[in-house]
Design a protein that fits this description.
about 450 residues, alpha+beta, Outer membrane efflux proteins (OEP), 4-stranded antiparallel beta sheet, two-stranded parallel ribbon, TolC-like
């Protein structure tokens, strides 16, 4: 009964520990959500969306209100106005300079609407849309690059932890052989130097194990930095030890890097159009309503200086204005020529990116094919080395071979286990590289299980 209870508790603890650990897909999602660089890219995309909304709102009329109160001399019939939204109306000068101070006041509403801009507004909106698309492309590229960096760090961590396990197994084999050697020496079946050699090799294997642990911890620190979250238990996917059945695919030109380059060219063209349309006229409709208060009498002088604090005259106005930049053509033409050069440069960069991606795709294809072939051979390599070691160990126990042959077989098994881990890690990295240069990280995830 007690044994059953203990077994049940252990199973519950093991299940809880398994649930507490996060494996690759969960870790990748956490990293994509929490990594500060990607958070910044998302906010930049949101800011670009707000810029498009701002450019679209330019069609709405503007309405500005103002109020003024002055205390000044009365040498002008209207009193004094500060620069602002009130249209001043000048009047005849007073017969002579007056140094008496009086109050004056004014309030106004000024409306301005540009319903017709001859394409200026639309060109600005279009440029802001391409700017938003460019920011979105940069966000997609940043996500892809981060996913590749994180996955590579995870594969390095997995390989390092697997190396720790392999080093521990190798150390345990040396420990077992050391115990066996002591027994054989005590029974006079083996010389004492065998025990000394096994002890030396056992200590060396413990040192290798410590080095493997140090390497694994340093790679784990790099993985946590890319994770963007410190308090997450990192689990190792067992599927990484298996060779998947991968169907190598060809992809289209949907890489975020190429899309970003193409959008940069479109944005440069949009800016050129905006510069060209800046030479077009602009129609503005103005409307104003303002009130004025002044203590100055129409024949000059005043009764009470504070009379100017109350409004005494009201004015309204409505009109339109057509503005034509007549002499701006010469300067703007230089900017258009500059923009033409930038467009050609952007097109050249786009071609360079396309050529570089074509080369990378060819290299990734060959790398993946050869890595898959090597990964398929790795299990047979380990199996053959293990069989050889077991046979040599049995022959050594029977006194049929010397110590050097036994040690060579064990070293070959340790090398086979280490090389097998490296081959599997390189195979997954080749698959990751193939997915990265084609801009489709989902392809890697589909082949993970």
């Amino acid at each position: 009964m007690c044994k059953t209870i203990v077994t049940g508790v252990l199973l519950v603890l093991m299940a809880w520990e398994a649930q507490a650990q996060c494996y690759f897909r969960e870790l990748l999602e956490i990293s994509t959500t929490n990594y500060p660089e990607l958070q910044a890219k998302r906010l930049e995309t949101e800011a670009a969306q707000r810029q498009v909304q701002y450019e679209r709102s330019d069609f709405l009329p503007s309405l500005d209100g103002s109020y003024q109160m002055t205390y000044s001399t009365n040498n002008n019939i209207t009193g004094m106005f500060f620069p602002g939204q009130v249209f001043p109306i000048s009047g005849p000068p007073v017969p002579e300079n007056q140094m008496d101070f009086t109050f004056g006041s004014a309030a106004s509403l000024l409306m301005n609407w540009s319903p017709l801009t001859f394409g200026k507004r639309q060109s600005k909106i279009q440029a802001s849309k391409y700017s938003q698309a460019l920011t979105s492309n940069e966000e997609s590229l940043a996500i892809l690059e981060h996913q590749v960096r994180f996955t590579e760090a995870y594969l390095n961590h997995w390989a390092a932890q697997s190396m720790v396990t392999a080093a521990q197994k190798n150390s345990e084999r040396y420990q077992s052989n050391l115990s066996l050697s002591k027994s054989l020496v005590e029974n006079g079946l083996r010389p004492g130097v065998d025990t000394a050699q096994f002890r030396s090799l056992y200590v060396r294997s413990k040192i290798d194990f410590l080095h493997a642990q140090k390497n694994a911890e340093s790679l784990r620190a790099r993985l946590i930095e890319l994770l963007g979250e410190d308090h997450v238990e990192i689990g190792l996917d067992s599927s990484l030890s298996e060779t998947p059945r991968i169907q190598i695919e060809q992809f289209g030109d949907q890489h975020p890097l190429l899309q970003r380059s193409h959008t940069q060219t479109l944005l440069a063209n949009a800016k050129k159009i905006a510069l060209s349309r800046s030479l077009m006229p602009e129609l503005n409709i103005w409307g104003t309503a303002f009130a004025r208060g002044s203590s100055i009498l129409y024949e000059g002088g005043f009764n009470d200086p504070t009379d100017g604090l109350a409004f005494s005259r009201y004015n309204y106005g409505l009109g339109f204005q057509v503005a034509v930049p007549i002499l701006r053509f010469a300067r703007t033409s230089k900017l258009i020529q500059r923009q033409n050069a930038l467009i050609l440069a952007s097109e050249a960069y786009e071609k360079q990116v396309e050529r570089a991606l074509t080369k990378d795709k060819a290299v990734a294809m060959v790398t993946l094919e050869k890595s898959l072939e090597a990964a398929a051979l790795a299990p047979d390599y380990v199996q053959a080395a293990s069989f050889t070691f077991e046979a040599l160990q049995a022959r050594y126990d029977a006194g049929l071979i010397n110590l050097n042959e036994m040690i060579q077989g064990q070293a070959e098994l340790a090398r086979a286990e280490s090389d097998s881990i490296k081959v599997m890690a390189e195979m997954w990295k080749a698959l990751l590289y193939h997915a990265a240069v084609n801009g489709d990280f989902e392809y890697f995830l589909q082949n993970l299980n």
